[in-house]
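Class prep. Protein, please:
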Amino acid sequence: MHLIKSLLILLLLSFPAVAQDSNAQPTGTIEVEDSAQKDAAIAVRIRDILSELEGYDDVTVTVSSGIVSLRGTALDSEAITRLGELVSRLDGVVTIENQVVETTDVVERLNPAIERFKTRIQQAIAFIPLALVALAVFALIVFAGFALARRKRLWDRLAPNAFIADIFRQIIRVATIIAAIVVALDIVGATALLSTILGAAGIIGLAIGFAVRDTVENFIASILLSMRQPFRPNDLIEIGGDVGKVIRLTSRATILLSLDGNHIRIPNATVFKSRIINYTRNKSRRFTFDQTVDANKGLTEQRRVILDTLKALPFVLETPSPNVWIESADKEKATLRISVWVDQRETDVSLARGEAIRKTREALLAAAKKPASSAKRTTEKESIENVGSEEAAELERMIETERGETEAGDLLNREALEE
């Protein structure tokens, strides 16, 4: 109850303010002489003006000593305000007593709305032919753009891979739709609406961009990686400590097959920002190992024994040749660092390293018991274990099988130029 009373009080207090705003008063100089003829002329002039305007049929006008009294009803407060402003512009008007109020007749209040509704229907009917032309032009432009985007051979020839080609096609479709909307709105004369729509779309796009920033970053990284092609299928690479053979590059992640047979999925944004080691790009690969020897038994001779042993191994490359150097030494022991180069496409690096360590150790033990020439002959006669890349070939077979099952989503191209 108190709330209703408060609202009524506020409503009543607002009426004087409205009346004050609607009572526009003249600001000219008031003449000293009073003329009844002039008052009559002012009244006639006001009545003639109101007779030409809609909504003032119930307004009566009286003028006395330049004071204009207006009584009756009008459609709304805006009409009352315009009436006061109109009368104040007449010459000779001293002041205005505007007692016109808003009409409460339902029919009079609805008639303008009905007239406006009829006018809008007529305008809409007259607008239909132009709208049909704009719609036809819109459909024609969209059809032409989509037909261009469907030309698969063209975009596959221009793009480095299917992923980029699909992005080109999507860009053509979006650009075509935007161009069609601009032309259609220009035909109907509503280009201002396009600016509003584009402004709202820009704000919404900016907000969405911040919300899915990681997804957008990953998508851009996928595009750049597919263009740069830093590795190929079956390449043995290392990304952020993860080592494996490349299965495929998708629009979201790079998929590796670890040497243990496990799948490793790395987001492309991480791949793009990480240090990538490609072990397959160069067919020659070096491995090193340390060998502890007796420092008092001739380091030069022991170094020669190691080099002769490694050079005799069939999987060791002649160029670059094996090398041995002293890494550290004390009174009793010395540590020799040994480096060996192999062709990793034909040799398993891990098996080759293990076999090189075994043969080096056996040669040093034999040299410690026999003369150097006898040790050399013994080394040449001993059998050498198979260090072929059968395991790597099996991994490659697994990768090729999996790539054949889902090759459509792969962004890597074997024929692309190397980075």
In short: Confidence is low (pLDDT under 50) at residues 12-22, 372-381. The chain is about 55% helix and 20% strand. The two ends are 81 Å apart (CA to CA).
